[in-house]
Amino acid sequence: MALTARGLTRTFGRHTAVAHADVTLTPGTITGLVGPNGAGKTTLLLMLAGLLAPDSGSLRLDDQEVDSTQLRAVIGWMPDVFGTWDSLTATEILTTFGRLHGQAASAARLRAAELLDLVHLSAFADRPAHELSRGQKQRLGFARTLVNRPRVLLLDEPASGMDPRSRMELRDQLRAMADAGCAVLISSHILTELSEMVDDVVIMTAGRTRDSDRPTGHRWRVREAGQPATSARMMSFADEEAAARHLGELVAAGANVAEFCRVDTELEDAYLALDAERT
Ligand SMILES: Nc1ncnc2c1ncn2[C@@H]1O[C@H](COP(=O)(O)OP(=O)(O)OP(=O)(O)O)[C@@H](O)[C@H]1O
Asked: Any coiled-coil ranges, and where (predicted)?
């Protein structure tokens, strides 16, 4: 299911948090949303999720104009901080959300168990939420996001607080969901991590969106045995084939190559090239 936003605008008092933002999320695609603090990312995500009314602009699902109720039925929204009812157990939280989405009690319980298994929290199923660590709460938050089998996923800094294994699992789960036809938008300040998982990027500065001009080439770090790490060379290649060819030539010429690895900094470079002011 594709979600298209055109000209979304939202002001708070005299401050325009989002100004004429355009976003297109397509099934099978993971899109990154990046921008400095105060750029309007969370405000934009809240409008896309149907949780904040835009002052103007349109929201369409597969070319049909939709209201906030229709949006909320198909969207999975994961805020950066998982606000929850601390005295409820992980199962109770997920079943409550399932019931709010109209699931029968037995279906909601089944879905809760399935999701706790997915985020490796089955052992915490009957523990109150206040006993969970920050990272475990984030994982429970991700499970909650999936309760209604969303077709569009909106995630605001989802990996904050998660340990490395949980981050990798989140990345794999998001890719699997995209492959299954979900459209995914993920906001993050960790650009190296984001560049490993996204297909497209939308950059926000001062409330405005623009597609990022990601460079088409990629960079590789090349070092010969015995060279200090600080004197490694950075080389650009159009694609993996070109890099592999060059490696073959280096080795054939007798170079003692100890390091030849791709460095995903192109998103960082594109971001830093912006005149992006923090607010
Ligand atoms: N409820 C609100 N009332 C007044 N101003 C708000 C409100 N929510 C957001 N703003 C303002 O709108 C602007 C955009 O905020 P937003 O939270 O969308 O930024 P962000 O890009 O998500 O920032 P960060 O990267 O720090 O999370 C900021 O200047 C913020 O102060």
From this structure: none
Q: What are the pLDDT digits (tens) for 151-200?
A: 999 999 888 878 888 888 888 889 999 999 999 999 998 887 788 788 88
Q: Is 63 in the pocket of ligand 1 (CB under 6 A)?
A: no
41 CB under 6 A from ligand 1? yes
Q: ipTM, 2 decimals?
A: 0.96
Strands (E), the chain: 3-12, 15-25, 30-34, 56-61, 64-65, 75-78, 152-156, 183-187, 200-205, 208-211, 218-224, 233-237, 257-263
Residue 78, C-beta contacts closer than 8 angstroms, at least 6 positions apart: 141, 142, 144, 145, 153, 154, 155, 156, 158
d(CA 186, CA 153): 8
Full-model pTM? 0.82
Mutate to test the pocket of ligand 1, among 12, 48, 157 (most ligand atoms within 8 A of CB): 12
Give distance in angstroms: CA of 43 to centre of ligand 1.
Answer: 6
- List the domains of the chain with CATH numbers: 3-211 (3.40.50.300), 218-273 (no CATH)
Task: List % helix, strand, coil for the chain (3-state, nearest 5).
Answer: 40, 30, 35
Nearest atom within ligand 1 for CA of residue 45: 18
Cα 248 to Cα 260: distance, rounded to the nearest angstrom: 11
Q: What is the pLDDT of residues 74-117, one digit of tens each?
A: 999 999 887 778 899 999 999 999 999 999 999 999 999 999 99
- Which residue do the tokens 């198909």 mark? 74
